[in-house]
Write a structure and sequence with these properties.
- The chain is of the alpha/beta class.
- The protein is globular, with a radius of gyration of 19 Å.
């Protein structure tokens, strides 16, 4: 899409995300004869998305291949306002920048994920509804965003899914079947969900290899998390899903907030096996800016941005957990 044509990453940002030395990045850029975007400043030269992917593929994607049973990952919470869509957007876009081929799926009728990716929710385009209910081939739903990133966008037509799925046999397994037609063409399938308990979300849960639960670090969010985990346990038992791989991602953490500290302590006490040790995404205005602009934080964030640092750390955790022969899994037994 044209909104991304003028954007890309500097060598400094590539160094941060790859974890290799700046001199190593520079040598590789020179060896590939990659040239900066023409209108970028000499002091902070940026490279196109395509060239960024060439570089980061060498140092991230090629070194960390994704296991087939870890590629479909959803971002979930049936409570609104947790920042789920914001984090999902940042993860999907940065995985693509890191060289992976990513399919972003918007399973929320509000379409905020799609809007961030540059789609107009008032446009008439096919959504998951058309594939789940009308049996339209999933390939007809897929739109390209930029090199390495495709999307199945959403709009309000998706609201019809709930009623119409009621009449379809094995309705909770529809998305799993549909995604099987294209999942081998991607390294990751990243799904944003709607903040409800719904047939559509049940489909997402059944189809997912990994469930990333974004939880705001506030006491009332923990109450909702308890209900969510109980609901997941009941649903996986009914569906005979023997193992559900879960990561809880604490979000909007504030260093000087007692309530954030108390929430983190509670997460460690009750959900320690699902959280990333000593990690939370900190509250930052850069996330608000990214949502307004519909851009990955790495396109505009400063080197010392805490949002950039936290997304980088989260990305590394997701990649480490997803790569072939991962040693440690956070497993929820039904």
């Amino acid at each position: 899409m044209s909104k991304y044509n003028e954007h890309g990453l500097s060598q400094k940002i590539m160094t941060i995300f790859s974890g290799v030395a700046a001199s190593t990045i520079n040598r590789y850029v020179v060896s590939k004869n990659l040239m900066p975007i023409s209108d970028s400043s000499k002091r902070n030269s940026r490279y196109s998305i395509q060239d960024t992917r060439i570089v980061l593929s060498e140092f991230i994607k090629n070194r960390h291949p994704v296991a087939a049973n870890k590629k479909i990952q959803s971002f979930y919470n049936f409570k609104g306002g947790t920042g789920k869509t914001t984090i999902c957007f940042q993860v999907a876009t940065h995985l693509a920048l890191a060289g992976y081929k990513v399919l972003a799926v918007d399973a929320d009728p509000q379409g905020h994920f799609s809007t961030s990716l540059g789609f107009d929710s008032t446009d008439d385009f096919p959504t998951l509804y058309d594939s789940l209910v009308k049996n339209i081939p999933i390939r007809e739903l897929i739109r390209n965003v930029y090199d390495g990133l495709d999307c199945i966008p959403s709009n309000l037509s998706l609201t019809k899914t709930e009623v119409d799925l009621n009449h379809i046999p094995k309705r909770e397994e529809r998305l799993q079947k549909i995604l099987s037609e294209v999942e081998n063409e991607y390294d990751f399938v990243i799904i944003d969900t709607n903040p409800t308990i719904s047939h559509l979300n049940r489909n997402v849960i059944t189809a997912s290899n990994v469930l990333n639960i974004v939880c705001e670090t506030q006491p009332y969010s923990l109450n909702g998390l308890k209900i969510l985990m109980e609901d997941l346990k009941n649903f996986t038992e009914i569906m005979q899903i023997s193992k559900m791989d879960i990561t809880i991602i604490p979000n909007k953490y504030e260093d000087r907030s007692n309530s954030s500290a108390e929430a983190m302590a509670a997460l460690s006490q009750f959900y320690n096996q699902y959280i990333i040790k000593d990690f939370a995404i900190r509250k930052s205005e850069d996330f608000v800016t990214a949502a307004k602009l519909g851009l990955p934080i790495s396109f505009f964030g400063k080197i010392n941005s805490i949002a950039l640092a936290d997304i980088k750390d989260l990305l590394h955790e997701i990649i480490k957990k997803s790569e072939v022969q991962t040693e440690q899994l956070n497993i929820m037994s039904a």
